[in-house]
Amino acid sequence: MLGQAAVRAIRHKGVTTHARTNAARYLTSGTTIALRPTNQLHTHCGARSSTVFPAMSSTTTTPILTMHKRFNSQTAAAPMWDAPTVSYKTVKKMSEQPSPNKYLIDVREPDEVAQGSIPSAVSIPLSGFGASLALPDIEFEAKHGFKKPGKDELVVFYCRSGKRSATASDEAHRRGWKNIKNYSGSWLDWVAKEQERKQNDKWDDDD
Hints:
Blueprint: H1 4-11, H2 17-29, E1 33-34, E2 39-42, E3 49-52, E4 64-65, E5 85-86, H3 88-96, E6 102-106, H4 110-113, E7 122-123, H5 129-133, H6 137-144, E8 154-158, H7 163-174, E9 180-183, H8 186-206
């Protein structure tokens, strides 16, 4: 819903029909917007001062949109740097033989992780990834529940299909991490390979 200040701005005779139309579209779409006054005028014939909202045009400040972005394979930014990739075999070994100086990091969102994850993996959602990497070591550990990886330690990222993990790899690389890998097949490949392995084990048992 529009705030009271925005409603007064729409009704003000100084706001053009075009501006009213645009504001009405935000109203019907349910998007929250805020309009900021650009100046204060004081009347010389009275004690009151009035806030003036000028007519919006292509050269004036546009409405400020308030939103929270959720990252997925479609919204994640394309990486500038392509990390070396690892296969299911490498990740399987990491999951079976965890090491304190090797990290398998899931960058999917919490609701996705809740549906299943690779054993021994830890989580840093991509939606807050950059902010998490910028945290001091103590704050990072308090927030995520594990020690912040050293910049020379092995870090393997994965997501659902490998796109968000590529973005995370690029972000970590730009922030100084040197031993970065991307599990390009990610969760979809893991699930397929695990099912295939279990099916092969079943056939072996039948023999």
